[in-house]
Amino acid sequence: MPGLEGFHEVHIVGIGGAGMSAIARVLHEKGFRVHGSDRRESPIAEALRAAGIPVAVGHAAANLGAADLVLISSAVQDDNVEVQAARARGVRVLDRTQFLGPLTEGYEVIAVAGAHGKTTVTGMLTLLLLDAGLDPTYIVGGVMADLGTNAHAGSGKHFIIEADEYKNTFLALHPTIAVVTNVEFDHPDVFPSPRYVRMAFGEFVDHIRPGGVLVACNDDEVAHAVAASYHANGGDVLLYGRDEGSGLAWRAANIRLNEKGGVSFTALYQGQDAYDDIHLKVPGAYNAVNALAVLCVASFLGIKWRVTRAALERFSGTARRFEILGEVDDITVIDDYAHHPTQIRNVLEAARQRYPERRIIAVWEPHTFSRIKALFDDFMTAFDIADRVMVLPIYAAREADDGTLTAHLLAQSIKHPAVTAAATLEDAIFRLLEQALPGDVILLMGAGNEYIVGKRLVLELERTS
After folding, report:
1. Most buried one in 7, 54, 115, 258, CB count within 10 A?
2. What is the mean pLDDT of the chain?
3. For residue 1, what pLDDT is reported?
4. Which one of 3.40.50.80, 3.90.330.10, 3.40.50.150, 3.40.1190.10 gives the CATH number of domain 107-314?
């Protein structure tokens, strides 16, 4: 594999995360001996073992085996016993950012960045290039429903990758095609203010290779500004969006609910030529806009319209993105990765469009104390569309709890007439079982453990049905 000559056995610390597990799969399929460890058991760990990649639960020096390269996730600290053991042995240790350059060397990289929508766009593009016979290597931030995996080492020249702005990880990439879906303030533990986020995305697009292109959403003010700056410096840009405006490559008009429960829209090319309607399986007007980004990439690559349209209509989504976990006694349980106020509003709008006459119970697991504090006012007004709201305990992730913020405090502050707080995940399941009525839609949102509530809730509903 270009950029990784001389390495044979790779150990991954924190292999249970979406990003690191995807890297493990690509390396495994490329012929490297791969193994890893994580602090707890998980469905991802089980899936990796099923693919032939050993995963140890817990960290110990013995887990390294004969590895000549150790990769660590962003959550792994320098004092980790496996990291310390690797350095003591003289084994090279790289974090994900340091490794992305060697991993993608020699490929034409298609990098999808943005505060929201990047997993879906990456998944759509992956399905498109596969259907077009280009056999790309890909890393998606969630398991694709159509493929049953989040990564693959293909034989083609393209590498499709979800480009994460956290800790400026995406600056390790040098894409031929860069997609920017939107730019919003997030990750306050890394970016002190919105200005720093804007600067990071500006630097990201400056990494586009000569002869490449920036695909950007014109509806988003900051993405538009990033694209305008890049174009002013001589870069090629393809703009897309739903708002009318000059210079758009693709625009979505007549967005509406379809019989599949998804959205349909009319695709307009360069503001005038109407192509056939596209009928997506995935819900929400935001997904029609996501599909436009794919149309831009398809145009740049010269992929035929019929192939592009068919791939978009075949796309069934990715795990934890409006994923229906189960339907029991006319109670529908859905999980979504929404953990930012804009995402919460968009997902609730999609749910209301799909289920206009049903009661929607929003179950929110706040993610990281720093994000909640930085975006507090926006979170407190994000739940208007829901009929009822339940707040789960805050998922701390990499952060320490200083005791100043609790689920109960958030429930008191949310501007909604029907809000409660659950003391534990088990308490949430018990309450939802008591409250749920036929016709209800229970929508879980977060980037932590809220999906556990959803899966156990479905099991309990099935048991008592």
Report:
1. 115
2. 94
3. 60
4. 3.40.1190.10
Beta bridge partners of 279: 264
Q: Which residue has the higher pLDDT, 67 or 271?
A: 67
Mean pLDDT of 164-177: 94
What letters, b where the CB count within 10 A reaches 16 and e where it falls short, cover 242-278?
beeeeebbbbbeebebeeebbbbbbbbeeeeeeeeeb
Cα distances (angstroms) measured from residue 412 to each of 188, 367, 394, 406, 435: 24, 18, 14, 10, 20
β-bridge mates for residue 33, sequence order = 9
Above 80 in pLDDT, residue 272?
Answer: no
Amino acid at 396: A
Q: For the ranges 160-169, 171-180, 238-247, 447-456, which has the lowest average pLDDT? A: 238-247
Beta bridge partners of 389: 362, 419
| 323-464 under CATH 3.90.190.20, yes or no | yes
Q: Rounded to an integer, what distance in angstroms lies between the CA atom of residue 5 and that of residue 23?
A: 16
Domain boundaries 9-95, corresponding CATH code: 3.40.50.720
The residue count for the chain: 465
The model's pLDDT over 331-369, given as tens digits with 9 standing for 90+, comes to 999 999 999 999 999 999 999 999 999 999 999 999 999
